[in-house]
Amino acid sequence: MTFVDLTDLTSLDAAFRPTTRAVFFEVFTNPLLDVLDIETIVAITHDHDALAVVDNTFATPVLIRPLELGADIVIHSATKYLAGHGRVLAGALAGGGPAMDAIAVMRRRLGTITTPHNAAAVIEGMSTLELRVDRASATADGWPPLRRDALVRTAQAGAQGRSLRRFHAIHQGHQPR
């Protein structure tokens, strides 16, 4: 396993080894919430014949759809935003192709992890997902400028001077609507 700063895409290309089979990354990094350039990361990954596996837990499919941006597999922690109520332990995978076929075989052999009750609770929570994401986004947009400025200063300090404008531009290119 190799850890790479994906805000510096030249480091990604240099990090590939003959044994690299996949690149796993989050849409928004945790804890700094840097927005990664999914399409470029996927292109570099595919140039090396590896899979692009994206954790889209923070963004949800409402904000960003990594499969439409070329990702091979997308992972969600359904416990969080998808279910929306913190009462379940569940996850979700989306994708296609041989990698997902292999996952389906393993699932048949090992069984499904979540319970029917948890699955039903996730489905119930997803009925309000778009509303919840839209409301959270509107609330963030409506923050008083003073709070937003403080948040930006805090994020800039935590991101060690990285340009937030650059991440904003990347995020705007990822949004499906």
Automatic annotation (TrEMBL):
GO cellular component: cytoplasm
Cofactor(s), by name: pyridoxal 5'-phosphate
Domain of life, source organism: Bacteria
Record GO biological process: transsulfuration
Example GO molecular function: carbon-sulfur lyase activity
Keywords of the record: Pyridoxal phosphate
Keyword Chloroplast part of the UniProt annotation: no
Keyword Nucleotide-binding part of the UniProt annotation: no
PANTHER family documented for this protein: TRANS-SULFURATION ENZYME FAMILY MEMBER (PTHR11808)
UniProt similarity note: Belongs to the trans-sulfuration enzymes family.
Name of the protein: PLP-dependent transferase
Organism listed in the record: Streptomyces rhizosphaericus
